[in-house]
Each structure stands twice: as structure tokens, then as C-alpha cells.
Specification:
Layout: H1 3-31, H2 38-81, E1 86-92, H3 94-103, E2 113-117, E3 121-128, E4 131-139, E5 143-152, E6 158-167, E7 173-180, H4 194-206
Antiparallel strand pairs: 1-2, 1-7, 2-3, 3-4, 5-6, 6-7
Amino acid sequence: MSAARRLMTLRWTIVGVWAALLVTRVVVIAAAPHADLSWFGFVELAAIALGVTVIVVAVFRAAALRRRQADDSLALAVRRIDPTVWLVPAAPTAELREAVAEVRPEVTLSEHVTWAFGATEASLWELEGRRATRLLVVRWSRVVHIALEDVHGPRGHGACAVAIHYVRPDDAPAVATFLVRSAPGSRRFLGRGPRLDRLVADLARERIVA
């Protein structure tokens, strides 16, 4: 059963429970107009609160599942082109948007992109509909330095990003900064810590030819 089908089934189950409670109240009132239904009111409130909570959680889980499926589809498409690349789920920063805008002015980056790190280059990918699109390429022979930088996140909060300082084919210096998502489909970003330090160290040690 698909996520959408499960969500629909859950929604109608909750609606059915609410309808059963309403019918029960009507029947009880009709049979005993003076009955004390205060306890029943608490049951109804609890059922409504539980139903709303379950539906909200299900909606957020379905959205996370869609994002994960999009990341998995993009990863599959990229690995069909090069099965040896190392994929890193990312989110663009203002600097990365500017770097892409110079190369592909017609493209507006979404909040979810993926870096593919290979033996000779790094490429930035995005899923457009069902098609994987390569937006930016950084040749490892043109990389100068990789480090961590404090930048403004998508929501205006401070965040820690990976910064790739490189040289363009026209010998102009450039930088591509990006936030690292904690996992495919996730909206959480890695902050300063062992995982982000390990990522930068691996890139600097194995993939830079200055």
C-alpha cells in the first residue's frame, strides 16, 4: 500500500470513529435525555485530539517520504551515469545560488540538491520532475581549498556550511558553499561536529589536486 493510500485509509478510519461517537451521543440523548454525558464529552475530545495528532504526523511523514523518494530517484539517476561517485545530500546557500545563476540563469534551485563527488570533479545535481539535471561542475584539479564556514541558513538562522574554493576555467576565483543535510529526504542540517569534520577531511585528503 502506498503512502498516499495509507494516509487516506487512516483519515477515513478516524472520520469513522468520530462519526460513531456522534451517532452514539445522538442515540443516548434520544433514549435518555437527562443522562449525564460529561464523561462522554471527554471521550469525544480525546478522540478528536488523537485523530488530529495522528493526521498531522501522517502528513509530515508522507512529505518526508516524498522527499526521500526524490533523493533516491536522483541518486539512482546519477549513479547510472557514474556508479563510482560519492553522493552527499545538500541544501543551497545564497552563495551557491549565485554561482549556479552565473552558469544557468534560467534555473532556480530548490531546497534539496545533491553533490556527486568523484575522482576528478564534483557536480551539483537537482531533480526536475523525473529528470536529473547537472547544474554545476567543479574540477578537482581547480580546487584550492575546502573548509567550513558560518553562513545564513534557508530560514535566516546561522548555519555551518562546506565551502569549496576553486578556480574557474577563466582563472577567476570562486566559492561554492552548501549545507549538508543529515540524510536523504531530511530537512535537518549537520552542524559543527564529527560528521561534518570527517566529510571535509575526506574531501581534502582524497579529492583535491591543487
